[in-house]
Write a structure and sequence with these properties.
The protein is about 35% helix and about 15% strand. By secondary structure, the chain is α/β, with parallel strands linked by helices. Bound molecules: pyridoxal-5'-phosphate (PLP) and zinc ion (ZN).
Length: about 400
Amino acid sequence: MPWLTHLECARCEKEYDITRLQNLCECGSPLLARYDLESIGEAVDRDQMESGPDNMWRFAPLLPVPDGKIVTRGEGMTPLLEASRLQTSLGVGRFLLKDEGLNPTGTFKARGAACGVSMASYLGADAVAMPTAGNAGGAWSAYAAVAGLECHVAMPKDAPELTQKECFLFGAETHLVDGLISDAGKLIAEAAAERGWFEVTTLKEPYRIEGKKTMGLEMALQLGWRVPDAVVYPAGGGVGLIGIWKALQEMESLGWIGEERPKMIAVQSEGCAPLVEAYEQGRRESDFWEGAETLAGGIRVPKAIGDFLVMDAVYESGGCAISVSDEDILRALQMTARSEGMFICPEGAASVAAVEKLIEDGFLSSEDEVLVVNTGSGLKYSSLVSVDLPVVDAGSSILS
Ligand SMILES: *Cc1c(COP(=O)(O)O)cnc(C)c1O
Ligand SMILES: [Zn+2]
């Protein structure tokens, strides 16, 4: 192992051994990877992170996977783009978009899958199993194929068609469920227990979040070792947000950044907003959201097992949780396409729409440097855009 020392329960702090496959703590909470940050600090300088592989594995000292055990398809080190037209039209100080759509399988899920599959394979799993809203299934199926692991996926039958095809194409045993991701989760948990598959459901294994935390490491690196005023993140399970927050803490311990923190802003859809409800009630835990419905499938998660970790980051950073309507999402998606030439995913569009709302209600100001995470490519959601284009006879004219 590099500098990984142990796993620690995020709630009761009980410690677990890193030499075995682990799921949740016996108290039912997620386990977090802990490192010997002091030794990393002595051995590694942040400047060393400025070169290295053009992917997230340049941060290997802060990741759990031993040398030679990395399962990769080049994920990470996605561009941090200036969205100057959005900046002007929305009236923020600076508008940055981290474009996760450029990852393998088209979403940031590749980061979690690369790290999670690397560790599952290294620690001896033969088969992994998970419920998914779509994109995680696509990513884990792909990396399981790279590692030669068997993969079992269950997803809502209305999950984006392309993600269903990805799982199938990458050779995962794929089941469509007439229900929500929470229903798919029950089926997977049962079958995994019965068959001895390693369950890699969101936050039920500790290393997906480590992969996702590299978004936070990259942000600081790309901004010259500082943080923006706000990070706006479309939260389903919230793993990316928890990961970014963890990265910031680790970088501060290493002296790579100071104690400043961006406001962490969790964005949900009005049709599924358990974290927003918890925020509005000043609570740390959310209730199961009945009848979850939104076209942004990645954030259609009625109850997140790590909700208290998302809320901690939101409260400690002075951030907030906010919901937007599906209409706002589609409008923001179109606006971003026309003004920035980017086909972002609906979840990313929810975050763009949230910035607009937060400027209007004064939570964000015209001075703020805002970083929006576009978690995936809109190309995976082409069915969201309907077109009715004129057909012209060849040999006639397109000038009507
Ligand atoms: C999974 C997913 C999300 C939500 O991610 P979490 O980190 O689990 O909150 C957001 N956007 C897209 C495109 C996703 O696939
Ligand atoms: Zn515990």
